[in-house]
Amino acid sequence: MDSLLLDIVIKVIFALLFVAVIMSLAAYSVLGERKVASWIQGRVGPNRTALPGISAIPVLGPQLVKLGIWQPLADGVKFLFKEDPLPGHVNKLYYCLAPCIALVPALTTMVVLPVGQYMDGDVVKPIILANVDIGILFILAFGSLGVYGIVIGGWAANSKYPYFGGIRSSAQMISYELAMGMSILPVLIWANGPNSGLAGLSLFNIVESQQGMWLGVWMPIPAFIFLVSLYAETNRLPFDMPESETELVGGFHTEYGSFKFGLFFVGEYAHMVIGSAVFTILFLGGWNFLPDFGIESLHWLSDPWALMPNWLGGPLSVIYFIGKTLFFVFLFMWVRWTLPRFRYDQVMTLGWKYLVPGALICVVAYAIIIGLWDIAFAIDQTPAIVE
Amino acid sequence: MADSETNLVTINIDGNEHSVPNGMNLVDACESVGVEIPHYCYHPKLSVAGNCRMCLVEMGMPMRDRATGEPVLDDDGVQKIGWMPKPAIACASKTMPGLHLKTKSDLTKECREGVMEFLLVNHPLDCPICDQAGECRLQEFATDYGRGFSRYVEEKNVKPKRTKLGPRVTLDDERCILCSRCVRFCDEIDENPVLGFTERGSYNTLTCFPGTQLDSNYSLNTVDLCPVGALTSTDFRFKMRVWFLKPTPSICTESSAGVNTEVWSREGVIYRITPRRNDLVNDTWMADTGRALYHQVEAENRMKSFRVDGNRASIGEATQRVRELMSVGPVAYVGSGQMSVEEQWMLRKLAEVEPGAVHFVYHQGEGDDRLISKDKTPNLRGGLLTGLLKTLPETHLHALRDQLEKGEVKTIVCFGEDLVKAGIGPDLLKKANIIYLGSHRNDTTDIARVLIPTLTVFERSGSFVNQQFRLQKFAQCVPGPAGLLPTTALLARIISEIKGDAYTAPSNPMLWREMGLAIEQFAGVEFAKIPATGLELDSSAFAQLPFVEEKGWHYEPAAEPAGAESSAH
Amino acid sequence: MAVKVVDRSPLNFWEKTYMPQVLGGLKITLDNMLRPKVTLQYPEERPTIPDNYRGVPTLVRDPNGREKCVSCQLCEFVCPPKAIRITPGDIDDSDENAHVEKRPKDFEINMLRCIYCGMCQEVCPEEAIFLQDIYSVSGYSREELVYHKAKLYELGGTLPDQHYKWDRKKEAEEKVAAGGHH
Ligand code: SF4
Ligand code: SF4
Ligand code: SF4
Ligand code: SF4
Ligand code: FES
């Protein structure tokens, strides 16, 4: 009984930790976004917000202020204290519900997200809240629920621009969901191939299966398709059809303000962070340090964390994983401030005419390749399975 | 000049033939055909002095053989022109048949440049502080005909800069170009020769004769005359630059002379009044007293709000109260010669709706036999023409007083007349309901039950009929205080209030169409087409009335024996 | 005019994928990101104002402290947005500058209207109004941003004078009064 209680308490603490980390990552990626935008445009970005007391510390305080560290805090407070308008013409229930619906799936998906590893005796175990078998399906399923926030928000706002934004969003989501789902099939085939000796759709397995080679390297096209679909799914430029300020004022959130808008905003960035994490897991070897090319003597290269004591290896693996994830978050921003927005028809063309067929071809091609691989190399190991 | 209009001659200016009246002054003749001859000392209403030399032009006449009188022809068979060897001043010459002028030749140009240079030699660099700047002949001609630079490096003359010539005129001698216009005006027109030059050469200085000062009531005309900023009006001095001022044609209400004026205003504020040339009424002159009349616009006792029984009211409440009071009992109207013809016509319409006797007060005062007549209202004759008056009114309202005493009148509608001054005691007045329409407070307004503020002559437009039975228009110069309506509109409102029908604001052209049909003398008069110089009306119907006006510069009392010519001016 | 139809050259394979272009764009933005920033940290760092900068128009005094404006109102006339409003006035005879006769009673410049065109400076015959290097104008109300005479002189200060026109005039007058040249 005691251990069960302890288990629950630990889980709760972990869960809170997860939420805290993800939320602050989301908040700080807002800051990151502004900084990156500024740098790209030759500016310095937010560098004025100061926290009384801390900012008075010599040297460090001003430096932090210059980095804009306190900006997300100020933004949050601002969102909290601004007047929260409730336009008269909206459907009140759904109007209030929509921002939550946008944020909750993003936070839910992190339950099945492994973020690192630790050693339980000799066995490598993931640092994860719930190591379910169908992790990837869970993420796909819940991640795409986010669109409901947008659609409901757009519809509940009861005015034309948000409505257009909602409609666009749903169409876009459906189109890219397909390509996205198919683009990870090769990964799953690989991860479950007899070769790897592992089974299941759990994300941990997928990471483990990449110790030899990160999948992004030898499956570049599915990786690319997944990345593009990810941009579309998270409504990031060049796919931010639902928002597209230039045509739709603000798209689905035109009628929103203050904290509700803040929820949408944070939701978008949370999606972005989770999406980057998923991409890292699927194609970039998760927390694996470097590929070891399947060479046994180089195994320390892919999994140095196992050689360290748990108190060091665990956190390091998490930090390394977060680092990889942040690179993709940065990529998101970099792309945003580089590319112009697509036209809507271009978005659809790209999705249906190129990505979906491309993903299909990849599935077939990689199935054949992996099959041949198995036939060529896996014969010897067959007994192992029998055993 | 009566015959000159019929007697046209052809003169040749810079190679173009023009038809101009014979014997006309050359400066005027050229101006009438659009050729400018710059001039300083010449003034159409003054004698010719010919001392500034600015108007020098080349002149010539077709050549004739001295002996035979035959035209001398050149090789092409065209009559030769005998050009005078030296340029001549245009202001001292008159048009004659065949006269040839060169106003643009090199010689003419050189002459003008030379004259300008001499004038500017000792002229101070005062334009930034000079009131004349913007309407200064010296500035204009310096830019148009001057050399554009100065060769004078010596020290300039120093002369008195702020001499008070009289109560209203300040002189800056440094700016004087010695044209003597002001001297001639005082001499010839004002017949009060107080100005003259002392010293000689470049020390020549304008001043008053010892023991005299420029204090006649026409002294400000010298300021208008002065082509430069030497003579300035003490009232207008340093008040506003003239280029901001907008001139609006108006009529002086000082007396029944009907002097034509120009009212100069900026953004709703009047800064000065100057005469407007009308050779049939006031030439180019006006009296100093008339120029000060604009102060009434900002006067302290100006009425600006509607009042009923002493309390502020809306215009609707006021007119409603007017209707109530007028239905109480017999009504009497006190009209005024300060009302325009249109307003008098509206009053007549009101008197038809709510019958009552119309009284006027004959304001008599001192005249000066010039431009101030003895009748101190501008439009008494309008009252006669519109039929409000059958005969000349009394100077006091004794008839009305008697009626009041007998209780025959209950309500008096008064248009700007101070009834107390007109001979009705305040105690007696309190017995009647007084409805007062006027622009300023006085003893009567303290007693009145309803006060309706009206606009001054500067804030409304209309027309007056002067002592010559000349119908003259005046235009609105500045907007009136907020919420005030022209008297015509006020009367229309009262009439519609009484009649109970819908109110439409009457326009002057509309009223004139009505009057043209109803009044014999106004037949065919269109408001928009009343000329700037006025329209002389048929006065025969009133020839027998003993008007008080005496002979003025352009007025002959009709009652005087025939044969008296109009004044020489 | 004859119309010539020019065919678009067809896109090659790589161009069709857009990828080289996208990568090129990313490279450009990356380069930009690494470049030094151009931002001026305004309240701490101030821009260098060039000599002929046209900032807030101000009234100036000559080195003897005489206010140079004589309220000729030329600047009021020339000002395109009608930002200037002058109430002219005369100088009392007892004043040491009585010989100038005229000075503004009040001089208002509405800084909300002023477009810093410099016309007033150009037109001024007395070299009394200058657009100097003040560029930061702020206030809490519209009235506060209508600068009156005192404020304009305070901002303007004293500038060197080339001419001393009025001083020379006064000298001449004094000389005559003392019986010198007329
Ligand atoms: S008189 Fe004319 S030229 Fe002379 S200072 Fe005055 S404006 Fe200037
Ligand atoms: S004061 Fe004026 S009008 Fe008189 S002489 Fe001098 S310039 Fe002429
Ligand atoms: S700078 Fe231009 S806009 Fe400003 S006050 Fe001067 S003239 Fe007017
Ligand atoms: S132009 Fe110069 S002298 Fe004239 S009012 Fe303006 S500042 Fe004063
Ligand atoms: S105008 Fe002819 S000389 Fe003066």
Can you describe what's shown?
The complex is a heterotrimer of chains A (387), B (569) and C (182). Chain A has 387 residues and is an all-alpha fold. Chain A has one domain (86-376). Chain A has 17 helices and 2 strands. Chain A is globular and about 65 Å long. Residues 381-387 of chain A have low confidence and may be disordered. Chain B folds into 3 domains: 8-118, Ubiquitin-like (UB roll) (Roll), CATH 3.10.20.740; 129-136 and 157-297, Alpha-Beta Plaits (2-Layer Sandwich), CATH 3.30.70; 306-537, Rossmann fold (3-Layer(aba) Sandwich). Chain B is built from 14 helices and 24 strands. Chain B has helices spanning 26-32, 106-121, 137-145, 181-189, 220-225, 288-291, 315-326, 341-353, 380-385, 398-406, 426-429, 443-447, 487-499, 508-518, and strands at residues 8-13, 16-21, 56-62, 81-83, 88-89, 100-102, 163-164, 169-171, 195-198, 205-208, 231-233, 246-251, 260-266, 269-275, 307-308, 311-312, 331-334, 356-359, 411-415, 433-438, 450-453, 462-465, 470-474, 535-536. The radius of gyration of chain B is 28 Å and the shape is elongated. In chain B, 46% of the residues are buried. Chain C contains 6 helices and 5 strands. The mean pLDDT of chain C is 90. Chain C has 182 residues and is of the alpha+beta class. Chain C has helices at residues 13-17, 19-34, 74-78, 119-123, 149-156, 165-177, and strands at 57-59, 84-90, 102-110, 129-131, 146-147. The chains are: A mainly alpha (387), B alpha+beta (569), C alpha+beta (182). Chains in contact: A-C, B-C. The interface between B and C is medium-sized, with 22 and 25 residues. Bound molecules: iron/sulfur cluster (4 copies) and FE2/S2 (inorganic) cluster. Residues 69-75, 86, 123-124, 126, 128-129 of chain C line the site of one iron/sulfur cluster.
